[in-house]
């Protein structure tokens, strides 16, 4: 039996790193990003956009050339040179079989920093030297565990917990309700409108989470359960930004990303 604690907007406020006077771009945290592919470059653009909108010192984007060009066109703030990072985000918009960035991902995974594994990089969890969070939807979790999709859809809370225990990582299982299971911790949140069921929504969540992880890298090393709290906070932010972008109607994912700064400002104010 898995008992989940509801994670709220109020709980999430403490997971937003507000810069101090003494901060610079490096001390705030640098997120390394290896996402997108020649086939799906849009996922890279969305993830980087969402990460920057969430507030991080720098994004280093190291994905395929076509995606890098589009990322830079949209976000010239992104840096495409290698260098030190406080966390990695990888896999969104990547085919899990034909991974053109596999060598870069394996090299990055050898670094002992926290890593967010999404989409086509989920199964690389056992190659990571640092703390890992995986962010599957139902179908991806079924593939990862070699389980039945219908069983997962019928009991996502139980399956998120089971996946965390079996794989030895923190799991964020996506859906109308998001379930997060980590070491000794199970959290759930359902702050998102169903308008969020649109392509690219998961890529934005991964970017928001990457940003929160990069700005709390040291805290995660000290307390492994912190990764779950950050993940639940990312899902809350994602849901509230979706609500703001939607206003009761349809939304696009870049509108969601654009709504993240005001969502954070409102959370910090209230
Ligand atoms: N902006 C970007 O760059 C974005 C890029 N993205 C990336 O795109 C890639 C390919 O995504 P995709 O959904 O096309 O994957 P695909 O393996 O064909 O199908 C997976 C399953 O879905 C089902 N299914 C599909 N269509 C269906 C339908 N009309 N109606 C009902 N079912 C349908 C289909 O079921 P089947 O047809 O087999 O019954 C299959 O089992 C992926 O790598 C993702 O990361 C996303 O992150 C979004 C934003
Ligand atoms: N019906 C829904 N209500 C609320 N949120 C949803 C709903 N369906 C999907 N979502 C959210 O949208 C996102 C979809 O992620 P994902 O399936 O990875 O999409 P994509 O691959 O298109 O980016 C997740 O954050 C999920 O929680």
Automatic annotation (TrEMBL):
Keywords: ATP-binding, Kinase, Lyase, NAD, NADP, Nucleotide-binding, Transferase
Coiled coil location: none
Record field: catalytic activity: (6S)-NADHX + ADP = AMP + phosphate + NADH + H(+); (6S)-NADPHX + ADP = AMP + phosphate + NADPH + H(+)
InterPro entries: CARKD, Ribokinase-like
GO-annotated biological processes: metabolite repair; nicotinamide nucleotide metabolic process
Residues binding (6S)-NADPHX: 43, 93, 137, 203
Presence of the UniProt keyword NAD in the record: yes
The enzyme's E.C. designation: 4.2.1.136
Molecular function GO labels: ADP-dependent NAD(P)H-hydrate dehydratase activity; ATP binding; kinase activity; NAD(P)HX epimerase activity
UniProt xrefs under Pfam families: Carb_kinase (PF01256)
Residue numbers binding AMP: 174-178, 202
The protein's assembly and partners: Homotetramer.
PANTHER family, per the entry: ATP-DEPENDENT (S)-NAD(P)H-HYDRATE DEHYDRATASE, ATP-DEPENDENT (S)-NAD(P)H-HYDRATE DEHYDRATASE FAMILY MEMBER
Identification of the protein by name: ADP-dependent (S)-NAD(P)H-hydrate dehydratase
